[in-house]
Design brief:
By secondary structure, the chain is of the alpha+beta class. The protein is built from 4 helices and 15 strands.
């Protein structure tokens, strides 16, 4: 199985050199393997945001890709360090739920990585995860980088529920950089009204169908209903945050 790339997703930002240290390990131990920066702007320590981001992209890359994910507020604690093989791809990172999307496939296999005493207690990304990602990228089998592990943390997106009146109740999952409010509501039809923060947004198919500044709801590219303001910031306008309620009817 070929390895097209190693991808990087972190909450490191790009100002401090932490990403450069990861890349230094990777190019040293996996020379010639392309490295793809997905994002280093996950909000600091935001496991939930990281998990949703992983869910969007991990299967978009070819089989053999190694996804290195470091959103790790528990670094240096007893939380496990893990590597996963799932649907032909590999994921490496902390066992805190951020890698959950790959754990629900029927063929998912997980190993727990050993942590050398020489590893920095504050930078497992560099000293634990990057070396393993490099090994997997250069053909080392999963079973040779760790011991079988059956207790990996699995976080799920909370499902919406329908009440006795047929209204679908959900919650805000996250807010993207445009200020769009991404919910856990699922629907196949771009019709009805979404109620959020005391306001109503009509369901449309595209942003172009809305007037400038109009609050609307759409089925986003992830399949979830999103609330947006055309050419504006819905989250700022509504004053909502993760976990706030939303209703589709």
């Amino acid at each position: 199985m070929s390895t097209p790339a190693i991808t990087l997703l972190t909450d490191f930002g790009t100002a401090d050199g932490y990403v450069a240290e990861l890349k230094g390990v990777l190019v040293t131990h996996a020379p010639g393997i392309p490295i793809v920066d997905l994002s280093h702007d996950i909000p600091p320590q935001d496991i939930a945001f990281g998990r949703l981001t992983v869910a969007r992209y991990w299967k978009r890359f070819p089989a053999g890709t190694v996804h290195l994910v470091v959103v790790d507020p528990g670094v240096g604690t007893t939380r496990a360090a893990i590597a996963i093989r799932s649907e032909g791809r590999f994921l490496v990172g902390p066992d805190n739920g951020v890698l959950s999307p790959a754990l629900f496939s029927l063929d998912a296999r997980v190993v727990r990585l050993s942590v050398d005493t020489a590893a920095s207690a504050t930078f497992h990304g560099r000293d634990v995860f990057a070396p393993i990602a490099a090994k997997l990228a250069t053909g080392t089998p999963l079973d040779e980088v760790g011991e079988a592990f059956g207790d990996a943390v699995r976080l799920r997106t909370p499902p919406p529920f329908r009440d006795a009146h047929g209204l679908l109740h959900g919650e805000v999952l996250t807010i993207d950089r445009f200020g769009n409010v991404i919910t856990n509501l699922l629907t196949r039809e771009s019709r009805g009204m979404v109620k959020i923060a005391g306001r109503a947004a009509r369901m449309l198919r595209t942003y172009g169908e809305a007037a400038r500044g109009e609050l609307v709801a759409l089925i986003g590219s992830s399949g979830f209903v999103e609330v947006a303001v055309r050419e504006g910031n819905a989250a700022a306008s509504l004053g909502v945050s993760r976990g706030d309620g939303v209703v589709l009817g």
